[in-house]
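Hi V.,

You were right to ask for the full record rather than a summary. Here it is.
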Amino acid sequence: MLLLLDDGSGCPVATKARVWDRLWARLFARRLDADLAAGASPDASVRLALRARVLVRTSVRRDLARSTQRVLAAASGSSAGPRLPVPVCRDRVRDAAGDLAEVITCLLRPGPVPARGVAKVTILLGDASGPLYHRSSTQDLRVTVRETAEALSPLSNG
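Predicted structure:
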């Protein structure tokens, strides 16, 4: 059972997730992540709620923190650093290292974390055309990472 917000009244409504909803949430996780990162309420639909529940799991957060640590290690330039499938913009990552460390800290923090922030991390790490990997991206990596860290704050709206 999921508690969602009714469109008309904004009151909580108990809803059951169907098999189709679960499958859709898996198949279209990237789209749902983008919606959550943009500020969609996890309580707005069954599919968003299902995806948000996956994102905030401790195991998912730990995996994302590990991936972020690998990005930082790859940018350090040491030959012992891990080889990533897609090379990172090392200078940009080094400039944003403090904010990336804050993202890692937030992901590993015990207790609840807003799904919006975790969705932002998945997009940051998974978007090969974004500022982390693509030199011609017009997004500022430091600003993007800072916004991501802020969205992971338990006090943020998400």
